Fold this protein.
Amino acid sequence: MRYLSLSSSIKVALLFSLSFTATSTSSPSLFFSNPKPYFPFSLSSRHLHKATAADLLSLLGPEDQASNVDPIEAKQLRSCLKFLVPFNLTSIEDDVVSVKRRSMVGVIGQRREIEEDELIRWPPSSVLDLARLSFDYGGDPGVIHHALDPTIIPVPDVEGSKKSRCELTRTPYGWHFINDELNAYLVFLFEMIASRGPSVGLNVSLNRYDFFHGHLFLAKDTGRLGILFHAKEYPAYDKKVFPFNMGYCQRGSDLAYDSTMNLRNILWLAPMPSSSSDAWVAPGVLVVLDSRPDGIIYRDLIPDYVQIARTLYEDDFGEVAVDVNYLNVGGTSSPNYELFVC
C-alpha cells in the first residue's frame, strides 16, 4: 500500500473496523457509543444551503467576495477560524507591497514576530510571482509544474519508515522548485505552524506520524494559490477511542487521538491579485480550521465517513498541483529535515 494516510485509509478502515469494534470493545467507544446518528445542530436550525470550501475561501478573500457569503454561515465559519497571524484585509498597490517583502534569510525564532507576520501577509517576490501566475492562468496547475527543477530527488528512509514498509509520499522521489526562495518559504511555513500552533491549542511535532505534509492547490474559480496542511496524520491505534488499523505507516505511532484532532487542518493562502491592475486585493493568510463537532466546518465541510478523522479534502478547495513534504531524513537522534515536492 503505497500511500495510506489518515485521510485515505479511514475510508477502508471504517468498513472493517466499525462492526468489529462494536462487539469486541469491553467499554463503549467515545465515538461509537450511541447507535443513533449524531447531529450537533438540530434539523430545524440547518440551512438548506451547506457551507462549502469556496465559502471559506471567499471569507478570506477581498471584501466583495466575503460579502457574498450568507451572513449566518459567515458568522459560523468565522467562529471556526484560529489565525496564526492576525488577519487584516487590505488592498495594497504592488509598489507598496514591494517595500513589505522580506528576505527568507533566518529561521523561526530569530526574526521578530512582526517580521514573521509580514512574511505571511506579503511573502517574498518569488512567492508573489507564482501567486500572480497562478491567478493569471486561471488556476492551471501547469504553472506550478513548470516552476519545478526537473532533477529527481529520491526520498530516503524517514525515521525508520523503510523498515516498517511505510511510504509517506505519493511517489518515492520528489523535486525542488527552481527558485530556492520558494523552497525556503515552504520550509518556513512548516516551522511557522509548528512554532505558532500552541498559541491556538495546536501542538504538533515535525515527524512522520504527526505533521509532515500539505497539498498545494489552485482555488476553483479564482486560481488563488494555497496549501491545505494536515497534522495528526497517523494516530496510534486505540481500541476505545481510535480503533482503526491504518497500515504500515501507523506502526510505532504514539500519537494520541484527542481533542486536538479538531485542529489538524491548517490553511495557507497566498495574497490574492487584482484582476484589473497590479494591486493585491487580499493579503496572505495562515489559519487553523477548527473542526469541533458543534461547528459548521465539521457539519458541512467534512464528509460523514471521515468525521472521526476530522479530514478536510484538498480537492474541495481547488485543483491540486503537488504535495509538499517536510521530512526528517536524519532520524530521531540527529534530526535533519528536507523538503520534497511530490
